[in-house]
Design goal:
- The chain is α/β, with parallel strands linked by helices.
- The chain is 23% helix and 31% strand.
- The chain contains three helices and eight strands; from the N terminus they run βαββββαβββα.
- The strands form two sheets. A four-stranded mixed β-sheet has the order 1-4-3-2, with helices on one face. Strands 5-8-7-6 form a four-stranded mixed β-sheet.
- Strand 7 and strand 8 form a beta hairpin.
- The chain starts with a strand and ends with a helix.
- 18% of the residues are buried.
């Protein structure tokens, strides 16, 4: 199996579309509406197969869990080869990196991460594993 779509709940699809395409630089992949059906609007980071469906609605999940929750937090993580550089570029484009007590990239034993949110409070993380993080991930995969 391969994951192809994942939902992101947003209050206003047009505002969310502007954020994901104009601020984050993602691509709009699909935008249509069949009679009697909700609008099907998807976006994706350039070069990625996975598309995020911008579902209009009200989230029932507490999106307030930030990086302090560790791996128990609710976020979507993106691998980065340059977490600080990506943070700097995204911050300059107006991305909100104020999540919990975190406001900038954090270096940890496994690597560096920066947590940000969209205008609807959906939480995302940039993660750049160091050598320790890469070894841990490789060993974990071998154990499966």
């Amino acid at each position: 199996m391969k994951l192809t779509n994942a939902p992101i709940v947003v209050k206003d699809q047009d505002r969310a579309l502007a954020f994901y395409t104009e601020v984050l630089g993602w691509e709009k992949r699909a935008d249509y509406q069949q009679p009697g059906r909700p609008r099907w609007l998807t976006v994706a980071p350039k070069g990625q197969d996975l598309e995020f469906i911008l579902v209009q609605g009200e989230s029932k999940v507490d999106l307030g869990l930030g990086p302090e929750a560790g791996s128990g937090g609710h976020n979507i993580a993106f691998a980065s080869d340059d977490c600080q550089g990506d943070y700097d570029a995204m911050k300059a484009r107006g991305v909100d990196f104020t999540v919990g007590s975190y406001t900038k990239p954090v270096k940890q034993g496994w690597g560096t991460s920066a947590t940000f949110k969209d205008p609807d409070g959906n939480i995302f993380a940039l993660v750049q594993p160091n050598l320790v993080g890469k070894i841990f991930t490789a060993v974990s995969r071998l154990r499966r």
